[in-house]
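Records of this kind hold a single protein each, on a pair of labelled lines. With that in mind, the following record should read easily:
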Amino acid sequence: ALSLSQAVGDRTQEATILDNIGSVYNALGEKQQALEYYQQALSLSQAVGDRAGEATTLNNIGGVYSDLGEKQQALEYLQQALFLSQAVDDRAGEAITLYNIAYEERSRGNLQLALTQIQASIEIIEDLRTKVASPELRQTYFSTVQGYYQFYIDLLMQLHQQNPDQGYDKLAFHISESSRARTLLELLTEANANIREGVDPDLLQQEQTLNAKLDATEKQRIEIYSNPESTPAQKTAIEQQRQQLLADYQQLQDQIRGTSPQYAALKYPQPLTLEQVQQQILDEDTILLQYSLGRENSYLWAVTKDGFTSYQLPPRDEIETFARRFYRLLQIPGYEIGNPRGIAKVVPRDNLNSVAQLSELLFGEVAEQLTKKRIVVVADGALQYIPFAALATPETADTDTPVPLINQYELVNLPSSSTLGIIRDQINGRQKAPQQLAILADPVFTDNDNRLKNSSSRGTELDLNQLLLNRSVRVSDIELNRLPGTRTEAEAILNLVASATQVNAFDFDANRDFIDNPQLQNYQIIHLATHGILNSEAPELSGVVLSLVDKQGNSQNGFLRLHDIFNLNLPAELVVLSACQTGLGEEIRGEGLVGLTRGFMYAGAPRLVVSLWNVDDAATAEFMTRFYQLMLNEGLKPAQALRETQLQMQRETQWKSPYYWAAFTLQGEWN
């Protein structure tokens, strides 16, 4: 590329390539070689008058001198880069350089000067992200600057240690809140506004046409994959066609937003401050534990209605190591908290010790604050995969008889405190649905299901649906076997509700038509008892599996993907996803787990019960039957019923292992 740019005389491109080569050498640790290429790039940019390119290279040179310990030299180059970025109005470049200057000033002990620089950098980032119409691009951009927010938090907490009465820790909490789930916050705000009102009808017609094309392409995919004579070229072509349609659809959504009067008038909410969280979110019975995991240090903020305390924790890597060990331990049916007998010989000691170690790390400092009846957790990183219910209470963590946290506290999870603020605004004044319960359970997945007459004749077509789902199934490590326990579960739950206030879909009827029916909006509780699929590589392939075959034995699209869920209108009080790993998703820095939970929240549900791993079919049926009995017969709220169910399961030998009860968590509103 370098020789080609030189041959055609494109000196601007040549400078860019030289700068990139310098960055490669810099990443390899070859600092002097990097400086040589950067200096060549700098000379070329200056010669052709490319001031933006010059600023970029000056910034990079400053970084090299910083690594070499020549701090004053580094600052001089960074100041030159800042001047040029401001001169050419390169706001993104200015934000990067301000961050780098802040980093240098902190290393020199100039904390207040560093604070001024990082504040200016974050202000630019906040402004830039609001100018990006596409939620996906906004999300991607925000993930790239999470290090800036983490640096800001570190700096504020360092200042707090020096000046504990100046409120730096409170500002750090607000910055932590500002750094998480922002795209979800904005999507929930959009969901409350009809952004299609006043939009050019031609654009809306294009949207309908594209949706029809996507459905037709999906059907064509089915035909191609079901035909054993289909060639690899045909499969590649249909995949490319689908990807292009999805890209066109996303581009059209951006156009709709760009021309929508409602969208233009939309005011995105600012993340809540500490005082707003205390006034608007928390009650007298609740303590919020908000975690922020960082490369250098991690932090915990404990917030009550009238109290606030901050704590420094070990770095992200240390906490996440214990979290992953604990997660693996919980998926062993033979494991019992405080009783490793039976698995001690087959489970690494590090995993067995992870309960005490992780509990001590997360709660050791805050133990005396845990006096409320409810703990609300805003987790970060790998902690989002952990059921806090199964962690040990601080006072018992390092004993021979650890007590699960759920035994003393009601537990709730949130993507962020600000998210709950928006959810409460949405449901404020909303009429409760007239009917009580809608259940979907026991769909038909395969051609060898005995509910299908002459099942053997349709084998080739049904295999296609497996092929369409194979990538997600492979990533999720599950098989699409029938779940007979879901029928037992659903029938037991339905017996708790008057027949006039319920609707159900079993077998072939447990399909997309049932989910897409507007009548589903009339039900307070939506219960989906089927396979859930997590695809962390491609979140859009995550979803819920419905019936893959109709009564005639024809294959059908029975996969409710994440983007389908976003298009639903489900103003239910509660959505229960009695399925595998429905509480997980792709972790995107700054957003958290992007999965089914946020899809159903966008669709209108203020609270969900989801699962963090694949739970045994019979255990799930037992759990859900008890959960609904407590809610519907005894009048407990979902969070209360969930806790009581987990306590009941613990007391019985058959279900004592946390594998059977700890996976289920409540996300969202607890009231």
